[in-house]
Amino acid sequence: MPFSGKSEAVQIAKDIGIPVFRMGEMVWDEVKKRGLEINDENVGAIANQMREKYGKDIWAKRTIEKIKSMKNVESVIIDGIRNTEEISAFKRELKGNFTVVAVEVPDELRHRRALNRGRKDDSKNLEKIKERDKREIGWGIDTVIASADIVISNTGNIEDFRNKIREILNKI
């Protein structure tokens, strides 16, 4: 779910040299292409519109194109999977091992973190944050979390979480 610590996990992967593909950047690119401001409302609306028009796996397909354009890459991190159709697209197109890692955090803690994060597409309004949760559950993120190969709890301190992520990345 949003604000669970995925961005922190992704940064650790980057730090150890694993290429990272953030699916949200594909959405941001589309929002910019349409001349719209990057904010939660526009990003969510475009993500929805494109899924309705081109299928639930549209963002996975765009991410796959970017991954396949890279040369000599053994493994990558994909940040932002929201539904099982995207997982299926990645498994089908990228072949090889594909491990889904979910980061779990109780809603109250996620919401507190959300109000403090400050990324440009984040809302500072708790009701809007809860609306985003509902939107993403509507896309199927709850099913992705429930079917994850590895689930990490992120309720402790940041260093413990970082250590868990490093350990998992070293294993896979």
Explain how this protein is built.
This protein has 172 residues and is mainly α. It has one domain (6-171): P-loop containing nucleotide triphosphate hydrolases (Rossmann fold, 3-Layer(aba) Sandwich). Helices cover 60% and strands 8% of the residues. It has 9 helices and 4 strands. A two-stranded parallel sheet has the order 1-2. Strands 3-4 form a two-stranded parallel sheet. Helix 2 (23-33) crosses helix 4. The chain is globular, with a radius of gyration of 16 Å.
Short key terms for the protein model shown above:
mainly alpha, 172 residues, globular, 9 helices, two-stranded parallel sheet, Rossmann fold
What's the quick description here?
The protein is mostly helical and 172 residues long. The protein is 60% helix and 8% strand.
CATH class: Alpha Beta
- CATH architecture verdict: 3-Layer(aba) Sandwich
Quote the CATH topology. Answer: Rossmann fold
Level of helix content?
55-70%
* Spatial sequence of strands, sheet with the most strands: 1-2
Largest sheet, if any? 2 strands, parallel
- Report the total helices: 9
Q: What is the CATH homology-level superfamily?
A: P-loop containing nucleotide triphosphate hydrolases
List low-pLDDT spans. Answer: none
List the helices and strands and how they pair.
Blueprint: H1 6-15, E1 20-22, H2 23-33, H3 40-54, H4 58-68, E2 77-79, H5 84-94, E3 101-104, H6 107-117, H7 126-139, H8 141-146, E4 150-153, H9 158-171
Helix pairs in contact: 1-9, 2-3, 2-4, 4-5
